[in-house]
């Protein structure tokens, strides 16, 4: 037995066209997809909507396949069993399918679209008589009305009120909050509700002049000519985007708003992305042949070795910037072996244990016994003799009764006067002082720690003995005996080695000092105990790296507006995150 599908259509002049086709199969599919046996281009149908199959006894079973059903003689259903001899009418969206038995016994399926049916109201969906379709405007009219309403409420009224508010500051703009793409950052929170403070002209991006009204101390990253020469030539697509942006009033490349993007949340302003810096610095030497800066585009793959500011001549206090690849040596003016002080089984450790907790020690010396952090935790204070050293390195040189005679640290003239007076008998020295404790190194006969000016380097004056190697001054300082006036090399302690970068010790507090500084193996104060870029890359890689413990963008360590104190912002602006934080302003 076969299905006979009879499709009825009407021409423009109302002439009926009937087409028959036979399908010799026991099952048919019906739906919106083209691969169905009965293809109905109707968005109200599922792609595969229903299945018609022949049953024993000649009946036709109709089963909805998708989530939508159909109608059987005007009643909604999802399945039906029809006797073709009796006949029935099925409704699928805007189509009607009649089921009957043809003269030759085939199952006749008569398909007709109801809109093409002749006669007023014939074939219309009965449910439409219960809707407001007949009394409401069409969807097109409603769309135009709503579009006009939106333009009036959210464009015309805010623009008109904004213009009035500019003429009269007492008038507040109406409806401008609907244009606000998001809250301002914490730095600009005080400007909430005062859009005209930054957006001076309607439909024009914020200009640098508006930013400089408050940020008067902000300056260019480099001279304008250098910036223009360093900037990479944009590709065709980027040029097209810039042209479109300029057409809508956005300023050119290098404007404040290229870096400082607002309305992205009430927290801190988002840092500049790595690409902003790499556009110039990634191939900088190709455009600025005289630059001394190495190319830098990604901390993990393209970044020059660190350069440190170190003292290269103690007497003149000359500071030079040297690459760590050159294994530089520092000349701070001090004679100081880290290894001797940090040896847990050495004399310094025993002395610290002897001093006990009352003296701030009690166990072997560690970095924190001498290197004390600044109040903000970013860097460390210079080592201070009285605070950090004098507990072990006493400057007492004589004892009169129960009173110790002590040299005044840092005052060479006073030291010369005190010791010279003793040499001339004005204030003669008593017997050498035995302090009753052991010192960190070997010094004087028997190892007792005292300033043995009378028994050490016999034949020299007390001043010469004090300044000689192993003397009370020469123990840590390099003597300067040129000329008639004795003295020591000036001491220069660098508190910030990386002049163009920023490092915050506080977020690294979970690490041991020895993770980055190999102090336990250093036997000379000339050793520059700074980690190189390879060591930092064990945790830090580029902004987009998926392998990094800490993905790091340029703004994590560098400021766009450098100054002698920059970056001087608080740590919250420098908190270590996935892409860091860039200082604002």
What can you see in these coordinates?
The chain has helices at 139-167, 208-212, 224-230, 236-247, 256-259, 274-281, 284-287, 338-342, 347-355, 385-389, 412-423, 462-467, 533-536, and strands at residues 3-10, 16-23, 27-31, 38-39, 50-54, 60-64, 70-72, 75-77, 79-82, 88-92, 95-101, 107-113, 307-313, 318-323, 396-400, 403-406, 479-480, 487-488, 540-541, 550-551. The protein has 585 residues and is an alpha+beta fold. Strands 2-1-12-11-10-7-8 form a seven-stranded mixed β-sheet, with no helix packed on it. The protein has a five-stranded mixed β-sheet with strand order 4-3-5-6-9, with no helix packed on it. Strands 13-14 form a two-stranded antiparallel ribbon. The longest helix is centred in the N-terminal third of the chain and has 29 residues, at 139-167. The radius of gyration is 44 Å and the shape is elongated.
Give the tally of β-strands. Answer: 20
The total count of helices amounts to 13
Principal-axis shape: elongated
In the sheet with the most strands, the strands line up as: 2-1-12-11-10-7-8
The end-to-end distance, rounded to whole angstroms, is: 85 Å
Uncertain parts: 116-124, 434-457, 567-585
Judged by helices, strands and strand pairing, the structural class is alpha+beta
CA radius of gyration? 44 Å
Q: Level of helix content?
A: 10-25%
| Mean pLDDT reading | 82
Largest sheet: 7 strands, mixed
Oligomer: single chain
Portion in strands: 15-25%
